[in-house]
Design brief:
There is one protein chain. By secondary structure, the protein is mainly α. It has 14 helices and no strands. The protein has a single domain, classed as Up-down Bundle (Vanadium-containing Chloroperoxidase, domain 1), CATH 1.20.144. Helices cover about 75% and strands about 0% of the residues. Helix 4 packs across helix 11 and helix 8 packs across helix 12. The protein is globular, with a radius of gyration of 21 Å.
Length: about 300
């Protein structure tokens, strides 16, 4: 029986290679994602809960639970990080765009065909992160660096943001929400590979969120807390989708026109961003989503 399965698998691979037929072999990725998500335990929420508690205790010990004092104890760290990171303005400004949901989602748009389970969880996670982010910004009303510090004392890359909505960083929440979905979707089984994968994803996430300090848009705690909330949002998205199966329809080809319309909207949004800022990251994300759009239309037409 096992030999027959192996032979059939090899046959499908050869057939796909020489004929270009996708067949069911592409379902393997989605199956692996489904299995990985099914293994997750609620205990994964312990780390962010403990981490956020430690931050609150640290602020309490520093007598910095008020907005003004919280900003002041971060000032030196902010100015130091901003001065170092802003030495690479083009790189920093490009990388910080990953916090824009349209940009990041464009880069992973192809998974809607090969691993729709990722997008099912991602939709739920995005809604959760949006609610949490909007609520906390209103509750804390922390002014951004440009609203409280002398603008000549640090570097601002791009538009100067002066609102009172600094905590938490929405860009950081977006980055870690998406990365958390990907982290557990492609989690290796072997321990050594698992450790490397977690370290890699975490490092990428930290690099991306700290660009918000480099462009002068956020205080350090904004991005740290934002990243933690993004991790929680990603997990909640996975668990919600596992329990309620809300978005399983996106794997049904008859609903592809909705997805096509959404990706067309992404294309228009990216073109609009290109007209404002001629950044390479927008070109790359536009190319990626156009390729995904072509693939989705091709699959839909052949249904």
């Amino acid at each position: 029986m096992l030999k027959n399965q192996i032979a059939a698998h090899n046959y499908l691979c050869v057939l796909k290679k020489f004929t270009g037929v996708n067949l069911s072999i592409n379902k393997k990725m989605n199956t692996n994602v489904v299995e990985n998500y099914s293994r997750l335990k609620p205990s994964l929420f312990i780390f962010p809960a403990v981490f956020l508690t430690l931050i609150v205790l640290f602020l309490y010990k520093q007598d910095a639970l008020s907005v003004d004092k919280c900003i002041q104890i971060q000032k030196n760290t902010f100015l130091f990080l901003n001065s170092k990171l802003s030495q690479f303005p083009k790189t920093i400004f490009n990388l910080t765009q990953f916090g824009d949901a349209v940009v990041f989602l464009s880069f992973i748009s192809i998974f809607i065909i090969y691993a729709p389970k990722i997008w099912e969880s991602l939709i739920s996670a995005s809604l959760v992160s949006c609610i949490i982010c909007t609520s906390l910004k209103e509750i804390f009303a922390v002014p951004r660096p440009a609203a409280v510090f002398d603008r000549d004392s640090f570097v601002i890359i791009g538009k100067a943001l002066t609102g009172h909505n600094s905590l938490p960083s929405g860009h950081s929440i977006t980055v870690f929400t998406v990365l958390t979905i990907l982290l557990f979707a492609f989690m290796p089984q072997r321990l050594n590979y698992k450790i490397l994968w977690v370290v890699f994803i975490t490092a990428v996430g930290l690099i991306l969120v700290f660009t918000r300090i480099g462009v002068g848009a956020h205080h350090p705690l904004d991005v740290i807390i934002g990243g933690t909330i993004g991790y929680v949002s990603g997990l909640l998205g996975i668990f919600i989708n596992e329990k309620y199966k809300i978005w399983t329809w996106i794997n049904n080809k008859k609903f592809y026109p909705i997805i096509i319309f959404f990706f067309l909207f992404c294309c228009v949004s990216l073109v609009s961003r290109l007209l404002d800022d001629n950044l390479i990251i927008f070109y790359l994300s536009l190319i990626t989503v156009v390729i995904s759009l072509y693939k989705i239309i091709t699959v839909y037409v052949k249904k």
